[in-house]
Amino acid sequence: MRQLFGYALFYLLAIASAALLATQSQAAEPALQVRIGYLAYRPDPGPLLSNVIPEPVDAGLRGAELAIADSNSTGRFLNHGYSLQSAGAQSPQALLEAAKAQHDQGVRLFVVNAPGESLRQLSAALPDSLLFNAGSADDTLRSSDCLANVLHTLPSRAMLADALAQFLAVRKWQRWLLIVGQTADDQAYAAALHRAAKRFGLKIVAEKPWTFDNDQRRSAQADMPLFTQTAEYDVVLVADERGDFGEYVPYQTWYPRPVAGTQGLTPVGWHKTVETYGAAQLQKRFESLAGRWMSDRDFAAWIAVRSIASAVGKLRQSAPQAIRRLALSDQLPLDGFKGRKLSYRPWNGQLRQPIALVQPRALVSTSPQDGFLHPSNEMDSLGFDKPEVTCRFPDTLEQ
Fold first, then answer.
1. Which of 156, 169, 221, 333 has the largest count of CB atoms under 10 Å?
2. pLDDT digit of tens for each residue in the chain (399 aa)?
3. In 3D, which of 64, 127, 87 has the Cα closest to residue 309?
């Protein structure tokens, strides 16, 4: 009996010793440190002819910072750590130099809040890295000019226009008056609306370019009714991304009609009024961090970092190629507080996501609308579906 007791005691001591050694060995292992670069460049919009409220200068950055905090909260259980290296630039060349400096320090994962042309430059300069586009809605980046090492978390203009067009189709507001501003971005937004109208069988009864160069605060009541006098329409659509005149269109039109587009009823990737499916908790955490509302660029940067963290948690590594491969599969667990599982389209790297339709202080609806079906994923009824994409999206990154 004593001998059996001795063997048992020895066995228990051996197990305890092995467990202690394993724990010490695990503690001695370095944590997986995931470094993410944040690159921001927003061109000066120039003088505006309205009292439009400017976008916060830290839009995007604060969303990335919140995502780093969220990722570290869960990452500590896996012995993972996340850090953000941010760089703001005043010119495309300065942004490129900042990106190269971070790359020289070993960063291979980037969140980019910059125009499409800067994104193209960064993609070419960092072929072995993975970039998340949180700043450009450029449709060509998702349709004819896809970049192998770029995934898009900001919705494209096509997604926004399709989301709006679906709602207008449901409401049977089928006849549109389209007013288009003078900038290249306004023209691109108008092109997305034209595409959406054709796609969903709606009609643009008249299109008018905005050519006034006066301050509409003083003359909207005189200018707008005459300017919007044309064939009868159900809704006025505005393409004015800078906000030069669009805020003065509602309640001033020739016919008493709703206004939508860049002003009025607006399709957005994120908004303060989005509160369901746990979004209210995300909003509160963000407001506590930033002291303001969460914008669409903040959300795009947040979901970009969370995409990285979710992939790293599943893969137990941070190699850009592995993260990209997982993101473009259907195996990446990704929750964006939008009521549906989010995923990236393998044909152009665009994040599938519902689009909120909002007025300044209320959520009106969310697209895709009921009844707009798709063979595989209803969210692919928003933006460029696979048959519409002409670019070749490679399977691998350059090394």
1. 156
2. 444 444 444 444 444 454 444 444 444 444 899 999 999 999 988 777 677 788 899 999 999 999 999 999 999 999 999 999 999 999 999 999 999 999 999 999 999 999 999 999 999 999 999 999 999 999 999 999 999 999 999 999 999 999 999 999 999 999 999 999 999 999 999 999 999 999 999 999 999 999 887 767 767 777 899 999 999 999 999 999 999 899 999 999 999 999 999 999 999 999 999 999 999 999 999 999 999 999 999 999 999 999 999 999 999 999 999 999 999 999 998 999 999 999 999 999 999 999 999 999 999 999 999 999 999 999 999 999 999 999 988 877 765
3. 64
Name residue 392's amino acid: R
What the block records as the tokens of 338 is: 């939008």
- Which residues on neighbouring strands pair with residue 175, listed in sequence order? 203
Residues in the chain: 399
DSSP letters, 39-82, are EE--------SS-PPPPPTTTTHHHHHHHHHHHHHHHGGGTEEE
Residue 300 near residue 283, CB atoms below 8 Å:
no
**Cα–Cα dist 75/241, whole Å:** 38
Sign of CA dihedral 138, 143, 145, 149: positive
**CATH number listed for the domain at residues 32-155+271-355+371-388:** 3.40.50.2300
Q: Are 58 and 344 in contact (CB under 8 A)?
A: no
Those residues whose C-beta lies under 8 Å from the C-beta of residue 229, and which sit 6 or more positions away, are 254
Handedness of CA 174, 238, 193, 369 (dihedral sign): negative
Which segments of 286-344 are extended strands (E)?
343-344
